[in-house]
Amino acid sequence: MTAQPVDPVPVLNTGDYEVIDRGGQALVLVPLADFARLQLLERQASAEQVEEAQIQADLAAYRAWVAAGRPGARSHAEAMAELLGDGS
Q1: How many Cβ atoms are within 10 Å of 29's Cβ, its own excluded?
Q2: Closest CA to 34 of 58, 17, 49, 46
Q3: Which residues have CB under 8 Å from 64's CB, separation 6+?
Q4: Quick count: other Cβ atoms within 10 Å of Cβ 76?
Q5: pLDDT, position 1
Q6: Which residues pair with 21 in a beta bridge?
Q7: Is the pLDDT of residue 87 over 60?
């Protein structure tokens, strides 16, 4: 699997980081020092802070998905059929 550069979604501020696509998933290339700092912050944060950060990240991802035209979105009927086990 190879990685290809992609344009970042405007809703997410990626700053100077490069965004690539790898197998349909957008990834951000981050210097190791930034990654180490992020891990340290996460370890030192309270459970509430980590939860709030996850909520904010999920909201940003949702906004990016909407801004991208909701790729892969399914109808309500299709989603309900999958959830209820009615569609095989």
Answers
A1: 12
A2: 17
A3: 9, 11, 12
A4: 7
A5: 58
A6: 4, 26
A7: no
Question: How much of the chain, in percent, has pLDDT values that exceed 90?
Answer: 33
- pLDDT, one tens digit per residue, over 35-49 is 999 999 999 999 999
For the cut 70, the answer to whether the pLDDT of residue 64 exceeds it is: yes
What one-character DSSP code corresponds to residue 38?
A: H
Distance of CA 30 to the CA centre of its chain: 15
Measure Cα distances from 83 to 21, 30, 35, 66 in Å.
29, 36, 36, 22
The answer to whether 69 and 10 have CB atoms below 8 angstroms apart is no
Average pLDDT estimate for 58-77 = 84
Domain positions in the chain? 4-84
Which structure tokens are listed for 55? Answer: 């909520």
